Amino acid sequence: MGGMRLLAAAIAAVSMLAVQGAAHADSAPVATQQGLVKGVDQDGVTAWLGIPFAAPPVGALRWRAPQAPAAWTGVKTADQFGPPCLQNGPPTAPGANLPRSEDCLYLNVWAADGPKTPKRPVMLYIHGGGFQFGMTAWHETDGTSLARHGVIVVTTAYRLGKFGFFAHPALVKEAKGGPAANYGLLDMVAALKWVKANIAQFGGDPDNVTIFGESAGGGAVDMMMISPLARGLFHKAIVESGGPVKLRDLETAEADARKTAASWGVASDDPAALRAVPAAAVLAGAGSPPMVDGVVLPQDVIPAFKAGNVAHVPIIFGTNSYEAGAFPAAAKDLDKTYAAAWPRIMQVYDGYGTHDPKLVQGQLATDLVMTWNNRQTALGAAANGLPTYVYSFNYLRPSQVGKTPGASHFDEVYEVFGTEPTSPGKDANDPVIIGAMESRWTNFARTGVPSPDWPRFTPRTQTVEVFTNDGPRAEPGYERARMELDASLPQRPPN
User: How many domains is the chain built from?
Assistant: First the structure.
């Protein structure tokens, strides 16, 4: 969330999409509530791609809470990802050439072949992209490798930009006190409801669901923790590089939406007139983020965690050591911005062991945009009794050593999903770090504890699991001095 509009540099570096439909033997049909679906085999893992979890949010259903998908007869072949949601992603991002559509509410399921009992833990992933772009078809989040660890993997789409987050007063009034405005978040709730109703047929346990996401997806996990609409639909959570920032209130969001509608030539409070606006016009211009609306999100992220107004489930929080590698502009001139505090900053920060002021600026930007806010949510969760675990991903791939001081935004995703060895331009093999990440994530999904040697994070100990090139280690008080210094800076990002 914080700095997500600057995410393009990181995502532009991710590689090609999964080959759609590049499967082998057909799987046996699985019965969902809407009808039978037939997946495809991918080297011992069956994938069901492009399953509708809600009706197409088009026409009269644009800017409404997601509705149940239509039933079908016969067997639906689920071998292609659904179309990405309409978006203004960077032109160099993967999938930039794929046709997009308002009809985009589809999810994907991966399960290793074998007996469907006992029920397997379920892991539902929410993609990043600043709530403005992204898709489930990215190769980096293919669920094949993760599913081999005995979990069911689900990835879901959700409406983006102004299609997903739009608070025009006419639409809010039309909802008559029901959920409105945060339509993208409502899509995530709908996907969780689909999992609750259907995942047992794929071998998953609907009573053991972990939600996880990266970047805006990590922020979305924070919001699912807060939303009363998601209560009981998941049982564990993982927030990867989700740095929450202060969200707009509904009044501000309504005023913004009214100005936007006027730019489309809609001056009336007529929902039908809004829904008649061409999709290209809605897509044009700046995007729109989530907001505190009082129904889907009753409270902002950090205050909710500090007050304990969240789902009381085990949770992992973490960030990468050089998040600012994806948004270098955030580091520019920080020595001037914080000139009065700069001598103290140079004492506390080590510039990745170099004491180079330029690298200190990168460390500080990483903390201000991601790490500090992430730790605040972790402290709030731990103080309110949630089993809380925190990590720092510091691992450098062999091809990165000597070229970058730390792990950039998104770098851990390759390791969590085990897709680095098959991502063009990445190192061919990296089994140790992939094994460390995948095993901890799936152990957590299974038991609520990522590893016996990864201690819980508490306000007193603040122990962090640090993933390094020498392997993971648990370090009490890791970066605590930096976090305390960041809290004292007068211009740190709002929370």
Answer: 1
